[in-house]
Design goal:
It is built from 12 helices and 9 strands. With about 325 residues, it is α/β, with parallel strands linked by helices. The chain is about 40% helix and about 15% strand.
Length: about 325
Amino acid sequence: MTNVNIPVSVLNLVPIRKGQNAKQAIDSMVELARATEKMGYRRYWIAEHHNAPTLVSSATALLIKHTLEQTENIPVGSGGIMLPNHAPLVVAEQFGTMATIYPNRVELGLGRAPGTDQLTSNALRRSRGHESVYTFPDDVQSLLTYFGPEEVQSYVKAHPGVGTRVPIYILGSSTDSAYLAAKLGLPYVFASHFAPQQMGAAISIYREKFQPSEYLDKPYMMVCLNVVAAETDEEAKLLASSLDLFFLNVVRSSTMPLSPPIENMDDYWNPMEKEMVKSMTSAVLMGSKESIREQLIDFQEQFAVDELMAISYIYDEEKQKRSYEILKEVVDGR
């Protein structure tokens, strides 16, 4: 029988729900971290987005620090830090500081996209041009060095940071990142929650090209999926309309907060918009516990990933927690 007893983790973009302000959205982020920690989730990651009025995940390191303060043991990390926006030394100093305060609880997922539009990317001002996107492999290597032992350091060091060995994960939504993660011998996390099209190819490339390293002796493949679990398939389908509305925002470049579920999405989108949203959200586990179990078995028969990272755009916070409970019950065989 296909093994679905795999570690599960959480990704949070820290959306503002309709009726919430930014502070309440951050409070919700912490509350979900506490709840999923109690459920036994492996790790809790927070994204980076800029100039997004319905998301509060711009200062990711600060949110990670805040979440670490408010939880007990769960590792907290970035999903991810978008390196084109940051000097690697500053990232190493920030995460090295957190790792010094919270040993063995800080994780660093790294992405090569800016996490925003071009105008905002320019305003982040790391460089005049856009070469920082192309220096991503070198920047990752710099971070591995900064977190490494004293003997591998050069003149410029991250204090604190040296010797903290903050674990680094390569994030990606295309096959490019799969080659890099494999070459560096690092864990790889694929963003199927918004870009599932190249997932299968990226997984295959990563596993085929993987080179063992001091960080990892064999491939470690994580996939992020949308998860909407409920007591019945019908309830899950209704709750998932909030997910559809969230991605319809993306398609329309609009700024609606995370909205309550609605009965009929066809009243809100046209056929072309529906097709675009469904292509972005096709990687989803949705339904009752039994449906989630069947879908996860099918997924694992095809991809056999080492860890599942779940993101849940459910408006009602208690139903969101219940969705994470159901997923955990499935992987625990309960």
